[in-house]
Design a protein that fits this description.
With 45 residues, this protein is an all-alpha fold. It has one domain (3-44). It is 78% helix and 0% strand. It contains two helices and no strands. Helix 1 runs antiparallel to helix 2. The longest helix is centred in the C-terminal third of the chain and has 18 residues, at 27-44.
């Protein structure tokens, strides 16, 4: 699985959980989540 594929999957999960109301995601939260995802992907790739 490529880095971008991993990111896409993680982002999908985040978006779905935000849309389902599990978390009240603001743009700032979304950006923070992206930063964490990028760091995690960089570590694992």
């Amino acid at each position: 699985m490529t880095t971008s594929e991993k990111l896409s999957i993680e982002l999908e999960r985040f978006i779905q959980s935000a849309q389902s109301g599990k978390q009240d995601a603001t743009l700032a939260d979304y950006i923070e989540e992206l930063k964490h995802l990028l760091q995690n992907v960089q570590k694992t790739s």
